[in-house]
Amino acid sequence: MDWQLLSLSFAAVFLSELGDKSQVAAIALSGTSRSPRAVFLGTATALLLASFLGVMVGEGTAAILPTKLLKAIAALGFAIMAVRLLWPQEDIPQDFDSD
């Protein structure tokens, strides 16, 4: 096992997940719960399961589809998200007047 790669991956994911919404929810639940240990175990289990499912689906998709097609689909998805974020929405008021 490549320990340097393992530690680098762990550090990158750990730092990027520090401000995650699930962490904020876990803190809020444990602060108001009578059993913070149960909240921790439930949160940790959910994170592990979500990560496991993501790896399994990603591995299966990578085994079925060619790399260039996956990159093209990802690029198209990000481009669509960018256009939707930058495109003005008609149903959202642009100015908020507080009286």
Automatic annotation (TrEMBL):
One of its GO terms (molecular function) is metal ion transmembrane transporter activity. It is found in: Membrane. It comes from the Bacteria. The chain crosses the membrane at residues 38-57, 69-87. Signal peptide: none annotated. InterPro entries: GDT1-like. Belongs to the GDT1 family. This is GDT1 family protein.
